[in-house]
C-alpha cells in the first residue's frame, strides 16, 4: 500500500498543491481545470471590502446571512461556520453526551469522516446505516444524522428521508442533516423539499459545493436548538468571521440553478465519450465518476500486474490527471478521509473551458500511464508525493 496514514494523505495533497502552483507560474490560471465542483469562489463586491475594515462587518453580514440563509435552507435561525465539518462538530458538542449514541442514515456508506470523528471526540458511540430497513435508534441515541447527498453524490430518496424523520420524531430525537451538496442537488435536480421542510431540526450545507462560494458551512434550524449549537460554535471558534460571511452572502445571492441543471443534461455526452475505455464509468447528478474499483477492474481486464490497492490506483490516476493534463479532481487535492473516487463535476466553472472529448482523451492517456507505473513502486511514489 502506498497510502497508509493521514500523513500520507496530507503529503499527497501538498504535492498536488505544488503542481498547481507550478502550473500557475508557467501557464497561468488557464493552465488547469478545476473540475472538483468545489469552487472556493470569493465573490464579494468592492463596497463590501470597505465594510470589512470596520465594526460594521459583522453587523451587516450576520444580518444579511440570516435572510439569504433562510431562503436557501429554511429554518428560524442561521449560523455561518468555517466548514460543514465545523457545523457537524458544533451540533455534536451541543447535543451529544459521553455514552450516548449517534446514529446516521445515508444512501450509501461511507459517511463524511467529520460525523464519526465528532462522535468519538465527545465519547459517544457511532452507528451507520445505509439500508433503510435496518435503520433504528436506541434508548441512548441522542442525535441522528441524515446525509442528503454523499461525498460521491449518491442521493437519498425522499421516502427514506421521511422515514428516518418519522422514526426519530416518535422518540423525540433531534435530526441534523448533512446536506453539504444535497441542499442544492436534492432540491434543484431531484426537486425534493428542503431538509427543514421535511422535519429536520438542523440542516447544514457547504457554500462551495455546486455554488460559487467560499469553503464554509451554512447551517439553519429551529430557534432553540440553534441557540445551543451557536453557543458551542463560539466557545470553540467554529463560527465564520465577517469576511467569510460576506462572501457566503454574495454567493447565495448569485446562486444559479441553471448551471446545475445544464450539467445534469451534459453529463450523458461525457459518459458516452468515456464508455469505450471505462465500462464501469457511472453518472452522478452533475457529472461522471470512476470508482477505485472501476479503475482496478479495467487494469485487470488488460492483465496489468500490480500489488496496489484500488484506492492507491485512484490516487495515482488523480495525480497523473493533474500532472499531465492539468485536471484537478478531489483524490489529488482532497482533505484526509475524502473519497478516492475520480469525479468530474460539469457544474464547475472550469467545465466551460474543456470539452467531453478533451476530458476523455486525458482519461485515456492517464490510464495508459497508470498501467505503465502500476507495478513500479518507486515511480508511483514519485507521482504521488514528489
Ligand atoms: C464536503 C462534505 C462535507 C464536509 O465539508 P467541509 O466544508 O469540507 O467541512 C461533509 N459531508 C459531506 C456529505 C460532504 O460532501
TrEMBL record:
Domain UPF0425: 278-354
Keyword Amino-acid biosynthesis found: no
Signal peptide: none
InterPro entries, A to Z: PyrdxlP-dep_transferase_arc, PyrdxlP-dep_Trfase, PyrdxlP-dep_Trfase_major, UPF0425_MJ0158-like_C
A Pfam family reported for this protein in Swiss-Prot or TrEMBL: UPF0425_C
GO molecular function terms noted in the UniProt entry: L-seryl-tRNA(Sec) selenium transferase activity
Cofactor: pyridoxal 5'-phosphate
UniProt keywords, alphabetically: Pyridoxal phosphate
NCBIfam families: pyridox_MJ0158 (TIGR03576)
Name of the protein in question: Pyridoxal phosphate enzyme
Amino acid at each position: 500500500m502506498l497510502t497508509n496514514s493521514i500523513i500520507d494523505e496530507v503529503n499527497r495533497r501538498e504535492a498536488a498543491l505544488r503542481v498547481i502552483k507550478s502550473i500557475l507560474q508557467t501557464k497561468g490560471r488557464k493552465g488547469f481545470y478545476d473540475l472538483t465542483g468545489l469552487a472556493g469562489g470569493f465573490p464579494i463586491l468592492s463596497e463590501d471590502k470597505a465594510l470589512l475594515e470596520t465594526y460594521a462587518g459583522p453587523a451587516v453580514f450576520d444580518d444579511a446571512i440570516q435572510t439569504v440563509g433562510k431562503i436557501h435552507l429554511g429554518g428560524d435561525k442561521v449560523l455561518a461556520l468555517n466548514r460543514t465539518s465545523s457545523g457537524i462538530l458544533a451540533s455534536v458538542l451541543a447535543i451529544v453526551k459521553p455514552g450516548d449514541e449517534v446514529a446516521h442514515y445515508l444512501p450509501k456508506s461511507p459517511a463524511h469522516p467529520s460525523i464519526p470523528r465528532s462522535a468519538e471526540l465527545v465519547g459517544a458511540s457511532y452507528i451507520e446505516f445505509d439500508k433503510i430497513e435496518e435503520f433504528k435508534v436506541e434508548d441512548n441515541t441522542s442525535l441522528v444524522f441524515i446525509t442528503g447527498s454523499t461525498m460521491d453524490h449518491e442521493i437519498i430518496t425522499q421516502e427514506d428521508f421521511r422515514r428516518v424523520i418519522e422514526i426519530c420524531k416518535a422518540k423525540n430525537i433531534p435530526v441534523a442533516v448533512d446536506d453539504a451538496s444535497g441542499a442544492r442537488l436534492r432540491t434543484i435536480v431531484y426537486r425534493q423539499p428542503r431538509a427543514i421542510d421535511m422535519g429536520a431540526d438542523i440542516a447544514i450545507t457547504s457554500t462551495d459545493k455546486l455554488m460559487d462560494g467560499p469553503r464554509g458551512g451554512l447551517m439553519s434550524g429551529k430557534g432553540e436548538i440553534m441557540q445551543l449549537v451557536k453557543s458551542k460554535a463560539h466557545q470553540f471558534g467554529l463560527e465564520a468571521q465577517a469576511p467569510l460571511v460576506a462572501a457566503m452572502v454574495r454567493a447565495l445571492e448569485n446562486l444559479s440553478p441553471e448551471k446545475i441543471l445544464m450539467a445534469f443534461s451534459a453529463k450523458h455526452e461525457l459518459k458516452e465519450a468515456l464508455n469505450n475505455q471505462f465500462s464501469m464509468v457511472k453518472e452522478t447528478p452533475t457529472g461522471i465518476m470512476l470508482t477505485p474499483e472501476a479503475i482496478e477492474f479495467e487494469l485487470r481486464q488488460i492483465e496489468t500486474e500490480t500489488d496496489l490497492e484500488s484506492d492507491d490506483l485512484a490516487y495515482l490516476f488523480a495525480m497523473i490527471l493533474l500532472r499531465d493534463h492539468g485536471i484537478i479532481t478531489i483524490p489529488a487535492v482532497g482533505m484526509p478521509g475524502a473519497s478516492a473516487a475520480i469525479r468530474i463535476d460539469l457544474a464547475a466553472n472550469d467545465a466551460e473551458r474543456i470539452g467531453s472529448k478533451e476530458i476523455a482523451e486525458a482519461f485515456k492517456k492517464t490510464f495508459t500511464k497508470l498501467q505503465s507505473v502500476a507495478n513500479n513502486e518507486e515511480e508511483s511514489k514519485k507521482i504521488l508525493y514528489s
